[in-house]
Amino acid sequence: MEVPLVTVSQQSHSRYGDSGVIEADAPNLWQQIVTFADGERMLVNNADLDAASAVLLELGNLNHLLKTRIQPHDHQKS
After folding, report:
1. What residues have CB less than 8 Å from 62, skipping those under 6 apart?
2. Relative to the CA of 14, which of 41, 43, 62, 67 has its CA 20 to 30 Å away?
């Protein structure tokens, strides 16, 4: 699986314009742990990332929710 490259696009963010990779599982649906080229790991809000990254993250979050929240018919309680 390819590691997603994301860019901080929110001008008020301290890492504005910097790109990094997501190497760890997100702690929630609204933030990512991003590792930058200098080795710093930072919790970044999805809203502070570029639009392309945000779309990919949302698709990944949706896929995760579907896998964890929807059980096959055989596993549902009657």
Report:
1. none
2. 62
User: Cα-flanking dihedrals φ and ψ of residue 67, to 5°?
Assistant: -70, -35
Residue type, 25: D
Residue at 25 is within a domain: yes
For the chain, give the DSSP string.
-PPPEEEB--TTSTTTT-EEEE-S--SBTTEEEEEETTS-EEEEEGGGB-HHHHHHHHHHHHHHHHHHH---GGGS--
8-51: pLDDT as tens digits = 999 999 999 999 998 888 888 888 899 999 999 999 998 898 86
